Amino acid sequence: MAQIDYYFATLSPYCYLAGTRLEEVAAKNGATINYKPFDLPQAFGRTGGVMPKDRHISRIEYRAQELTRQAKKLELPFNIKPAHWPTNGAPAAYAFIAAQNAGGGDLGLLAHIITRAVWAEDKDIAEDEVIRACLKEAGFDPSLSDSGLLQGAETYTNNLEDAIAAGVFGAPFYIVDGQRFWGQDRIADLDLYLQGKL
Q1: Which range marks the domain in which residue 76 is found?
Q2: Tens of pLDDT along 78-129?
Q3: CATH number at residue 64
Q4: What DSSP string runs through the chain?
Q5: For the whole model, what pTM was predicted?
Q6: How many domains does the chain have?
């Protein structure tokens, strides 16, 4: 059975646009998903990337157009200028890791709900009540937002190191059998790879 390492960032608009398509592809191909939330800004700094606000205006403008187009194509609600971006994405990542360790809910849905809160609902995912609501909606105990913070922080740090070692430089990033797929627009290619067609 193939295992997909999924590196995602709680603040990434592209992770939001990925929706739950990864989970659908994994189920279709009998693959498992190893969710690895990580600190994307740190990865940018260590792999030659540049934060969106620091990019050349041509890149900033293109990003805005492309995100809007992709959201329309995927029929997902999207706010190009969310009220709480950037914010501290770490607390939501720690809660995700606590949920991952606890089990009992839908991790793929939780990842989508957290990113949706930022990019479609103008919520601040650094706030405890927002995190609790996300956990509850995905079938997890909302009190997980208050537990395992130390372990969550340690795993979050380790995930960043794993990401760098694996050649990850953006999000969403999918790795299976050493094959790397970057971006929500590469989920179809990942599907083809799992089918043995790529």
Answers
A1: 3-194
A2: 999 999 999 999 999 999 999 999 999 999 999 999 999 999 999 999 999 9
A3: 3.40.30.10
A4: --EEEEEE-TT-HHHHHHTTHHHHHHHHHT-EEEEEE--HHHHHHHHT---GGGS-HHHHHHHHHHHHHHHHHHT----SS-TT-S---HHHHHHHHHHHHH-SS-HHHHHHHHHHHHHTT---TTSHHHHHHHHHHTTS-GGGGGS-HHHHHHHHHHHHHHHHHHT--SSSEEEETTEEEESGGGHHHHHHHHTT--
A5: 0.96
A6: 1
